[in-house]
Amino acid sequence: MRIILLTGISGSGKSVALHVLEDAGYYCVDNLPPSLLCDLVATLIGEDTQRLAVAIDSRSSASLRGLPTDIGKLRDQGHDVKVIFLTANTHSLVARFSETRRSHPLSHSFRANSNPASRRTLIECISEEREMLSAIEMLGHVIDTSDLPASKLRSWIREIVKIEHAPLTLFFESFAFKHGVPLDADLVFDVRALPNPYYDLTLRPLSGKDAPVITFLDAQPKAGELLADIRGFVEKWLPSFKNDNRSYLTVAIGCTGGQHRSVYMVEHLAQYFQATERVILRHRELS
């Protein structure tokens, strides 16, 4: 059976991702206690279900510790189990809870307490949840949704579903340092030392995917040198990540605005590695 375990920090987009998986034909279960996972799989096998997506979060804190063991058991039984962990920075999470006016799941147990001073704040709930889920975060592919529109998250989840059986997938992601480093990055490279096309008024409205910007950066010797260094580093260490049984490796390339230099680098790196690897491109700041 193909099993996707969807977990992560509350408010990071698990409901959006679960709906995508449901649309993709997965049998979806939300907020399943981890202790029931193996029994659910056994039941669905008897009903000839081939694809299962399960959302697990901090509301099942009592049985979270046993989840890594249960995942190992399922894999030993021959099931293809993938873990997707959604996260976001605290500022983004606070803003989302404020917009929706929903309470954090960990705050519910304190409602019956008559002493308001003893209740956790939203930030305290988020901090505790990060600690509770820290062991699970290392089990799969992490997606940082801090500055990610729901439409782009849906697109990324669809891409992951399509390639879920590949031994290792390379994600090349461009981003803007002014908006923060992606939390899901495994390797981060800074290309802000390169000449910036932004200061050319004819190039400013374009991106690193457009021919004039490509021509501009192709003419910069440092751009070629840095591209070769990054490519060589990834190429050298990629076998080690494969030997570590990694399913995903996210290489994030950042510049100031995430529009020109980082996009240019990601496009070139993806084109190079596509000849031998499974590659997905992400441009976080481009619409």
From TrEMBL:
<feature type="binding site">
    <location>
        <begin position="8"/>
        <end position="15"/>
    </location>
    <ligand>
        <name>ATP</name>
    </ligand>
</feature>
<protein>
    <submittedName>
        <fullName>RNase adapter RapZ</fullName>
    </submittedName>
</protein>
<keyword id="KW-0547">Nucleotide-binding</keyword>
<dbReference type="InterPro" id="IPR053930">
    <property type="entry name" value="RapZ-like_N"/>
</dbReference>
<dbReference type="InterPro" id="IPR053931">
    <property type="entry name" value="RapZ_C"/>
</dbReference>
<dbReference type="Pfam" id="PF22740">
    <property type="entry name" value="PapZ_C"/>
</dbReference>
<feature type="binding site">
    <location>
        <begin position="57"/>
        <end position="60"/>
    </location>
    <ligand>
        <name>GTP</name>
    </ligand>
</feature>
<feature type="domain" description="RapZ-like N-terminal">
    <location>
        <begin position="1"/>
        <end position="161"/>
    </location>
</feature>
<keyword id="KW-0342">GTP-binding</keyword>
<dbReference type="Pfam" id="PF03668">
    <property type="entry name" value="RapZ-like_N"/>
</dbReference>
<dbReference type="InterPro" id="IPR027417">
    <property type="entry name" value="P-loop_NTPase"/>
</dbReference>
<feature type="domain" description="RapZ C-terminal">
    <location>
        <begin position="169"/>
        <end position="286"/>
    </location>
</feature>
<dbReference type="InterPro" id="IPR005337">
    <property type="entry name" value="RapZ-like"/>
</dbReference>
<keyword id="KW-0067">ATP-binding</keyword>
